[in-house]
Each structure stands twice: as C-alpha cells, then as structure tokens.
Amino acid sequence: MAAGTQWPAPISPLHANAPVHAYYADHFVLPLPSGHRFPMAKYARLRERLAAELPGLCMGEALPASNGELALAHTPAYIEAVASGSLSAAAQREIGFPWSPAMAERARRSVGATLLACRAAMGGAGLAANLAGGTHHAYADKGSGFCVFNDFAVASRLMQTEHARTQRARGPLRVAIVDLDVHQGNGTARIFAHDDSVFTLSLHGAKNFPFRKEPSDLDVELPDGCDDAAYLEALERALEELDRRFEPGLVLYLAGADPHEGDRLGRLKLSFDGLEARDRRVMDWAWRKRIPLAFAMGGGYGHDMEATVQVQVNTYRTALQYHQRWRAVTPAPATGATPTRWHNAAA
Ligand SMILES: [Zn+2]
C-alpha cells in the first residue's frame, strides 16, 4: 500500500454507547459419530455462561455467509461441493467432519458470525466477537482440521470491499490477523501469501498440527511445555515486529484456548492467568492505536471442557473491560444515535 495512508483511523465516537456484540451459531449442531473428539457441546456452554455471567454482552444469532461472500476467499468449486454434499470421502476426512446439511449450514453461520462481528467493530463498537469461528486451517479450495471455510479470510476481504465502497479516500483497508491458537494458521497464511494488504501473524506450537506449515508474514514457533513468561515474551516481540512492518486498520484476533495447560492437544503450559494476560496484551495493543478488533474463539480441547470454556469466558470479560475503558474516555453521542449496521436478532 502507498505511503502516507491515513490508517489506522480513530474509532468513531458516534457509537460510543454501543454494547459489545457477540454472534453465535451453536444451535446449528452438526451430527458427529459418538466418541468424536470435536467438542461440540463447548459452544452452547460458552453462550450459557456468557449470558449468566456477563450481562453487558449483547449476543445475536449469526446469519449465514452467502456464496458471494465465501467466494472472496474460496473457489466456486469448493463452495459448491460443500453446499451440495459432493465432497469426496478424502476431503471429508481432511476436514474431520462427515458432510451433512447441518455441517454445511453451521460452516456458513460460523463465517457469518465473524462477518457480523467485523461489521460491528468497524461500524463503531470498536470491539465485537464470534462465539465460534477462527477456522484458520481452511484453504481456498479445501477444508482441514475441523475447519470448513476460513472465516478470517472471508472477513478480511469483505471488510476491505465494504471499506473501499465507503472510504475510497482513505485508501485500502489493511488487516492484521493475530492468530494465537496453538495450531498454525496454515490456511490463512496460504490464502494471503501474496497479499500485502493483510498481515498474518501466527504464534503456535512448533511440534503441533499442521505438520506441514505454510509461511505466514510472521511465524513464531514455540517449544512443547512453553510457559506463561516465555509465551508472553514471544508475544511482545511479535507485536513489536508487527508494529515495525505493518499499520492495520482492523485487527482480527484468534483467541484460541488450546495453549492452556489443561488442553489435550495443545502441548503448551499456559495458565488461566497467562492466557488472560495474553488477551489483555492484544486488546491493549489494539486499544492504544484505537484500531477496531474482532475476535473469534478457535480451538480448545480441554481434558475438562469447563476449563476451555473458562479460558474463553475470561477473554470476554477482558474484552468488556477494554470496551468500558474506551467508553469512559469517549464522549457520549449528543443525539443518542444508535448503530444500525448490524443484525442483532436475539439481543
Ligand atoms: Zn487450535
């Protein structure tokens, strides 16, 4: 992008009273064989706990992403194969889910939730979330590792398109993807490999899935057993490098719960406090620049599902604290203007 860009734009004070919005699709349950290791129940449990413990959070049902939206990051042939159920047995195995109409619908809704979160964040809320999503192993033409479509890839391209329509004078929107799931964001890295308007950062376990990693703009590989202090130090260095190399107008944060020490697949040793410090650091980094941030939950495969959900509830608690801080220093709108750009069916 040309030098002299005006991004990052300040968050508009117009919608300073907007609540934090979060979008869910957990009622679209995909049928899995018994004993399947994907923790489907986690999503409904997260929504249940957020509703009970964080009343400041405004939750709405996700709309499905359209074919046109998906095609911003996926090939028409792959979108059609998912829609029609013509995925090969090998393609379904690589995704890790058997195809069903519910699987296809859930995949669209999961992307749709991230799209709505991005619109809310960009539309004045500053911060918004998807209760699922973070499907970073999906490539343009195939799914992988429990990921059908790549929500951050579709969202980056859609926000750039919508931004270009309304903010031509500001130049193209630049998106930073901060992927802190314990697994590398291989699909995302590949999709944006030749796109310098999107910066892909991935901090992940060196010895973890995917075993063939794709080069991100910045990859940080962590050893097995990495603890809070080493992780936070690595994150600090990574954000400093991102700052040196890129100036985003939107941050997409993949707040994976799987670096937690209680995770079955993670191989790292982060505590609840360490993960909360991680979330705080990323949100603080975006907050200081006044860059809108949308986040998604990514992986979490705790021996105890409640521990995974606890990590994610903590992420939302931190997000609400940052949002309140922003509201406290931003004057309230004189006219009581309300945001109208996002869907909020079940708020
Ligand atoms: Zn993961």
Task: Give a verbal description of the structure.
This protein is of the alpha/beta class and 347 residues long. It has a single domain, classed as Histone deacetylase domain (Arginase, Chain A), CATH 3.40.800.20. It is 41% helix and 12% strand. Strands 2-1-3-8-7-4-5-6 form an eight-stranded parallel beta sheet, with helices on both faces. α7 links the parallel β4 and β5. α1 crosses α10 and α5 crosses α6. The longest helix has 25 residues. The N terminus and C terminus are likely disordered. The site of zinc ion has 7 residues, from loops.
Helix and strand topology:
Layout (H helix, E strand, L loop, with lengths): L19 E5 L16 H13 L3 E5 L5 H4 L5 H9 L4 H7 L5 H25 L1 E4 L20 H16 L8 E5 L6 H6 L6 E8 L12 E5 L5 H18 L4 E5 L17 H18 L3 E4 L8 H25 L18
Parallel strand pairs: 1-2, 1-3, 3-8, 4-5, 4-7, 5-6, 7-8
Helix pairs in contact: 1-10, 5-6, 8-9, 9-10
The structure holds zinc ion (ZN).
The site of zinc ion (ZN) has 7 residues, from loops.
Secondary structure: number of strands: 8
CATH classification, class level: Alpha Beta
Main β-sheet, spatial strand arrangement: 2-1-3-8-7-4-5-6
Strand content: 5-15%
Count of structural domains: 1
Shape: globular
At the fourth CATH level, what is the homologous superfamily? Histone deacetylase domain
Whole-number average pLDDT? 88
Bound molecules: zinc ion
Taking the alpha carbons of the first and last residues, their distance comes to 38 Å
Helix content: 40-55%
Low-confidence stretches: 1-16, 331-347
Instruction: Please count the helical segments.
Output: 10
Radius of gyration, whole Å = 19 Å
Q: Which fold name fills CATH's third level, the topology?
A: Arginase, Chain A
Order of helices and strands: EHEHHHHEHEHEEHEHEH
The biggest beta sheet reads:
8 strands, parallel
CATH architecture: 3-Layer(aba) Sandwich
Give the class from helix and strand content and strand pairing: alpha/beta
